[in-house]
Design a protein that fits this description.
By secondary structure, the chain is an alpha+beta fold. It has one domain. It contains one helix and three strands, in the order E-E-H-E. It is elongated. The termini are close together.
């Protein structure tokens, strides 16, 4: 079984960004550090809102 995380980030313009990853800690650090995601990049201040853990069968 493999685990995935769906996460939601609140951007500085009050819009949300939703992503999926199998390594939540690494992905959140990437967003906080570089924000190179095409949608998040111009939005300098972001805040992690929530995550959901999914497991494949």
């Amino acid at each position: 079984m493999k685990q995935y995380y769906v996460y939601i980030i609140l951007c500085s313009d009050n819009l949300t960004y939703t992503g999926i990853t199998n390594t939540i800690a690494r992905k959140l650090k990437e967003h906080q550090k570089t924000s190179k995601t095409a949608y998040i990049y111009p939005k300098t201040k972001t805040r992690f809102l929530d995550r959901l853990t999914l497991t494949t069968i």
